């Protein structure tokens, strides 16, 4: 330990230039640590989102349901986001009014995607965007599933809008 301290002192005494370099390196390390921390937090949130979706995968469709034993589309999204302390109404149309509107080309994991699957052109279905054009949603025939919706003519025709509730 003493030899480390002596060599450190000699380095400091050799000139102000090395001190500045050491300070810059320290500031850089602090900045990098902050970025890593934020990155780690986001990664942890994404992992938690995927875990929560997997917990629901295979859950049967139950109109008005919002539990892993039975859920409809908005009950599924409402319960998943509850894990992140976000209160949402039960209803796709009501959920489509929350958060920030996002262009389809700017979708990120965790964004909500809304569709009109009925005769009226009104939002009545919601899913959670994952990645590569995939979403998790509660299908009335298959329960909670992950599907590729981008490039799928059924979903493409029915897409209405996207919202970002939280930035994962």
Automatic annotation (TrEMBL):
GO biological process: proteolysis
Record-linked PROSITE patterns: NLPC_P60 (PS51935), PROKAR_LIPOPROTEIN (PS51257)
TM spans (from-to): 21-39
Superkingdom as given in the UniProt entry: Bacteria
One MF annotation (Gene Ontology) recorded for this entry: cysteine-type peptidase activity
Record keywords, A-Z: Hydrolase, Membrane, Protease, Signal, Thiol protease, Transmembrane, Transmembrane helix
NlpC/P60 domain ranges (all copies): 43-166
InterPro entries membership: Murein_DD/LD_carboxypeptidase, NLP_P60_dom, Papain-like_cys_pep_sf
Pfam families for this protein: NLPC_P60
Family according to the record: Belongs to the peptidase C40 family.
Protein name: NlpC/P60 family protein
């Amino acid at each position: 330990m003493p030899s480390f301290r002596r060599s450190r002192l000699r380095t400091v005494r050799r000139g102000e230039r090395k001190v500045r370099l050491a300070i810059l390196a320290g500031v850089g390390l602090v900045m990098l640590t902050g970025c890593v921390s934020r990155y780690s937090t986001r990664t942890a949130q994404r992992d938690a989102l995927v875990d929560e979706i997997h917990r629901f995968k295979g859950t049967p469709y139950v109109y008005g349901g919002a539990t892993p034993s039975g859920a409809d589309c908005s009950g599924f999204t409402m319960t998943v986001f509850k894990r992140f302390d976000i209160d949402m109404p039960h209803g796709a149309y009501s959920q489509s009014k929350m958060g920030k509107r996002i262009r389809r080309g700017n979708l990120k994991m965790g964004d909500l995607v809304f569709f009109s699957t009925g005769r009226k052109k009104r939002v009545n279905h919601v899913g959670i965007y994952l990645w590569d054009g995939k979403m998790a949603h509660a299908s009335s025939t298959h329960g909670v599933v992950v599907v590729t919706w981008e490039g799928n003519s059924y979903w493409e025709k029915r897409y209405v809008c996207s919202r970002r509730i939280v930035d994962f």
